[in-house]
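Sharing in case it's useful to others searching the archive later.

Someone asked me privately for the predicted structure of Putative spermidine/putrescine transport system permease protein, so I'm posting the question and my answer publicly. Question first, with the sequence:
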Amino acid sequence: MTTPTDLTGPLPPASRWRLPLHWLGILPFALFVTLFLFMPTMKIVVGAFQSPDGSFTLANIRGLNTPSILGAYWISIKISVASASLGCVIGFAVAAAVVRGGLPGWIRSPLLTFSGVASNFAGVPLAFAFLATLGPVGLITVFLRTELGIDLRLLGFNLLSFWGLTITYLFFQIPLMILIITPALDGLKREWKEAASVLGATSFQYWRMVAFPILFPSLLGTWALLFANSFGAVATAIALTGSSLSIAPILLFAQIRGDVLGDPHLGYALAFGMIFITSIANAIYIWLRARSERWLK
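And my answer, the predicted structure tokens:
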């Protein structure tokens, strides 16, 4: 008996190594990632270890050890920690109320739709929205002062400050937390709660001893992702605070424009430090996300 291979002969080399057509769909994405992610990142990494004449040097990395740059990094880290922590707590509470709290089912779809939009709402529009609401002459600020006699400025609140920027970041941090943690909450099996109830556990004991240990990798991983999301945000911070708050992205933006440091390779080193910090946060998120998915299968 003959086979199709015997009748047609061996396949020509070009046919054996032809790229399947279904791979063509990801070529635009691969090109986009290469041009706008990998190549700029490699340019930053190489430039951080180059002198103006192109030779290798560590002077740029040592140049980061200055009070102004270290202070900018430290403020950025504090804002990222605060916004990520508050975003996780509030976002988890909202998602748990919708998924496990017995709220009407019709609330879920509008909430997730809004979260998908709000998680990408940033930059100048977001800064303008908060200035118009909580700024010195914002809607809520004026209402509290004229109608209730509460002056936010006298109470120490200033939108163009650490807590002002943190609250502004929460507008996209909370929706992002809702989008990420909702599938994890859906993965909690109803049988686990029923088994805990049969054994006499209260609702608090179920969450403390069953649900939270299972969700902990997802929660910690999402916190790391929110940290990286906040640490790299620049457009909102610049539009809202300008130069009144010195954080790493604003310092880097000033370096790109050439207004402050005047040393492009030191700017590469500053960007390299930001990439290093956000890469660690993203790596933690990916690792913990994989552990959580194994638990929830």
